[in-house]
Amino acid sequence: MDLWQQGYKVVLDADIQGFFDNIPHSVIMAELASVVADGNILGLVERFLRAGVMENGVF
Questions:
Q1: How far apart are CA 40 and CA 8, in angstroms?
Q2: Which of 27, 34, 32 is nearest to 45 (CA)?
Q3: InterPro entries, from UniProt (predicted)?
Q4: What does the pLDDT look like over 1-59, one tens digit per residue?
Q5: What angle do CA 24, 27, 31 make, to 5 degrees?
Q6: Which neighbouring-strand residues pair with 58?
């Protein structure tokens, strides 16, 4: 891996496809709201959770 050769100590490769689809978004938002007070950030994250995904040019 290029990152390892560049001197990084830890490299993580994870397949998280569908991960957030398996956790109720209300739970994610409640946890995030406990550490983030900015409503603009919370709204942005909520929109990201609802957004579709484009893979290989297909939405």
A1: 33
A2: 32
A3: DNA/RNA_pol_sf
A4: 577 788 888 877 778 777 877 889 999 999 999 999 999 999 999 998 888 777 788 87
A5: 150
A6: 55
Res 56: pLDDT: 82
Residue 39 has which token pair? Answer: 């409503």
The predicted pLDDT at position 41 comes to 96
User: What is the per-residue burial (b if ≥16 Cβ within 10 Å, else e) of 1-22?
Assistant: eeeeeeeeeeeeeeeeeeeeee
* Rg of the Cα atoms in the chain: 16
Three-state secondary structure of the chain: CHHHHCCCCCCCCCCCCCCHHHCCHHHHHHHHHCCCCCHHHHHHHHHHHHCCCCECCEC
Domain boundaries, the chain: 19-51
